[in-house]
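Model: Ready when you are.
Researcher: Fold this.
Model:
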Amino acid sequence: MKTFIKNARYFWAGGDSEVRENVSILVENSQIVAVGDAAQLAPMAADARNIDASELIVIPGLVNTHHHFYQTLTRNFPKVQDAKLFTWLVRLYPLWARITPDDFGLATTIATLELLKSGCTTAVDHSYLVPDGQSNLYYKQVEAARKTGMRFHLCRGSMSRSKKDGGLPPDSVVQNEDVIMKETDELVGKVHEAQRGGMTRIIVAPCSPFSVTRELMIEAKKYATSKGLKAHTHLAETKDEEEFCIKEFGMRPFKLMEDLGWMDENSFYAHCVHMSPEEVVAMGKAQGGVAHCPTSNMRLASGIAPIVEMLKANVPVSLAVDGSASNDCSNMMLEIRNCMLLQRVLKTADCMTA
């Protein structure tokens, strides 16, 4: 299928490129195949769907690197409006435990359409909740994302450590580790599109240090490496997490990731708020990535991530909206603004330019 975006009022290709006027773009399937003058591209676009962009601005699609789509259905829950992360999770788990696979599909439709409205065309959904073992929810999500047209990087998340084992989630939303790995492999085999321009990708993503075991973290990373997949998890989001890791594992969250063999260029982490200067430098050397979620970090009073220092240390930093229950919306333009403003609160007005 071809789409011909004709005569954009303004066109910016990103980076240091100049803003151009009256530019046309030809898209074939999931890839841009030509950019230039409408008359020059017209012969290649004879059978294309046409979009008149004469009153529009065309920019590169934004990439949201961390979300929880299912939370789109549980915004503004009264009991968690003033709660920090651990309390917030414990109060929401019983509600989330009742979400069905069809609900996951609906939430994916809502979340992707909302993201598209703010210019986001690629989204990572960290989907770690499997109520009552209903893992067909992942296929419902893939189906929904394909209908809306979002380039979808689905994190096959997991939780294996329930409350009875010293974790936070209830038994009804966790799975056995053998089942997790078996179902992850099946999902990769059925929906992962490794080719250039693939619209559906799978990421291996245990939830967090306080909801999975060390063994699952190690096994998940080994599997991701063997399949050429990215790995993702939450890291250093709150002081509570830091205290949990020191008490449970005898080390800070960053050191735990190093110890588990996770700290490399094929892993990226949500939040990374509570990082020491030495850890930031080490992450830059390892090229572990960060999905920065400024609005969520404000909403849950988690803290302010040291983004200026990360950029100076050559840490790959991206932006993300996080789940709608800790953000209340999915607006990438808002995240860009909040990222800049939060760093200015800590530093100076010119520490991050507009």
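Researcher: Now this one.
Model:
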Amino acid sequence: MSRAIVQTGPRAIEMREYPLPQIGDDDALLKLEGCGICGSDWSQYVGESEGYIRYPIVPGHEPVGIIAEIGSKAAKRWGVKEGDRVVVDPAIPCGYCRNCLHGDYNVCNGRDHIPYLGHVPAGVGGTALWGGYADYMYLDPHSLVHKISSTIPAELASLYNPLGSGISWAVERPGTSMGDTLVILGCGQRGLCSVIAAKNVGVSCIIITGLKRDAAKLALAKEFGADHIIIADETDPVEEVRKILPKGADVVVDTTPNYSKSINHAVAMVAPNGTIGLAGTHGSDLVSGLKSDLIVRNNLKIIGMAAVPYRTTEIAVQLIESRRFPLEKMHTHTIPLERTEYALQLLAGKIPGESAIHIMIEP
């Protein structure tokens, strides 16, 4: 049997037990060591995913664990064996739809449910164990599995998805290269990992924004390589960026959640012919006051950025294993499975007097 946190509706989670699934030649069973939490987990918890999620579900899409049982075909496909430590991409693509065949598996539309860990309804494939908030997790034949060194602490290994996001959002998707200038809006996990990714490729000037309450995160951003920090609730972030970069930034990456004015800021900060990457989701907070003429006149490129490609996760794993950056300073809390609701509230800043950067749920 496996314990699992089950979401039955908005702000409704409970602990249940489920039998372990039968494993055949093509799939596997993961004994979880932990699962990272990101901002989208909070959004899912409060019901912002309502309308495209079918309850009940086991949340959690940033798992790290040990292969407990694996079929022969799956072992050959993934290059792993029982006892190996792995991390798993959130996406579970079908492999056959047009998007998957083009390599765009992050927008797979070949399944009748959302093809992501933590979003698959209980009962699909005969199991409920489709998420990382549990003792065990089922690995579908289409899972995207990455081996990671067993010498890396689980808390550090669980940073693979935030770091992969930083590499994808700050560098790969916008095409940022050595000598470019970059503004990162937001200093959460993925904003900080964007600093790391940018520093790693030789970006010449890295600016990151945050709020007064984010002092610890911004100090860490400086340690990771940010050249300038801007306190967005004490000053005008656009004016401050223009003081540092009068012509604007080559690239602006928006990681801020639920604050649509950041898109207006990005348009005002970026240089002509520059690129804006939108990664923070804003839910029902609609953009208003956008000066679209600036987008046209300045020949700006705006791209949406979701999920992390397989190869980028491989790079993130390699960077974690290199220990080149003190990533352990991002991890602030390891919280037991039975206190998952508290962990979600803590990450969202809902616990008075407490704050967190990265949290791992531990069975």
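Researcher: Key takeaway?
Model: The domain at 2-159+330-362 is CATH 3.90.180.10 (Quinone Oxidoreductase; Chain A, domain 1).
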